[in-house]
Amino acid sequence: MANKKILLMIAGQEFQPIEYGHTKKVLEDNDIEVVTGSNVSGQAYATDGSVVHVNMVIPEIDMDLFDGIFLIGGAGALKSLDNGDVYNLLRTAEHEDKPYGAICVSPRILARAGVLAGKRATGWDEDEKLASIFEEYDVDYIHEPVVVDGNVVTARGPKQAEEFGKAIVRIVK
Known about the structure:
Blueprint: E1 5-10, E2 13-15, H1 17-29, E3 33-38, E4 42-46, E5 51-54, E6 56-57, E7 68-71, H2 77-81, H3 84-95, E8 100-103, H4 107-113, E9 120-121, H5 130-136, E10 140-141, E11 146-149, E12 152-155, H6 161-172
Parallel strand pairs: 1-3, 1-7, 2-4, 3-6, 7-8, 8-12, 9-10
Antiparallel strand pairs: 4-5, 11-12
Helix pairs in contact: 1-6, 3-4
């Protein structure tokens, strides 16, 4: 059986390095190939100043090449990934019944893309806006660190990055 290939999406600026690094490590430790996608080509810069190589820029991404797509959070996520191109990638994953999800602030992007409607999910809520955003998009807000609903995985933040990765592994394998 060929190895699974997962797309991790990060913002070109200010992505959350723990969420990205821990999730990626868990996936790779379970023989899942990780491809890093972003709104920028070349390199992306984390909130801590670390740099990550970007494999694919959003317009080049073909969901047929991947077994799932997951969005990493961080301050730059809403500025860089909350757009129609990313919504289309998520909708394609949903339509093709491929695993998808997000961690930290990024479940808000899934909600706006319409791929969380009628599903259970969680996410970062330190600004106390998540409940109203989820209500607007018909998402059942579950106050848990990591929530799996079918083939959708959402998580609160950096402390849940490893558990987020393990949940992805369980639904992808």
